[in-house]
Amino acid sequence: MKKIDIRDYLTANFIGRSIEYHETITSTNIRAKEIAREADEGTVVIAEEQTMGKGRLGRNWTSPKGKGLWFSIVLKPKVKVEEATKITLIGAAAVYKALKDMGIESYIKWPNDIVIDGKKVCGILTEMIFRDKGSYFVIIGIGINVNLDEEDFNEDLKNKATSLKLVRRSEVDRNKLFAYVLNNFEILYIPFKEKGDIREAIEISRERSILIGKEVRIIGGNREKTARVLDIDNEGQLIVKYRDGKTEALFSGEVSIRGMEGYMDNC
Ligand code: BTN
Question: Does 266 score more than 80 pLDDT?
Answer without folding.
Answer: no
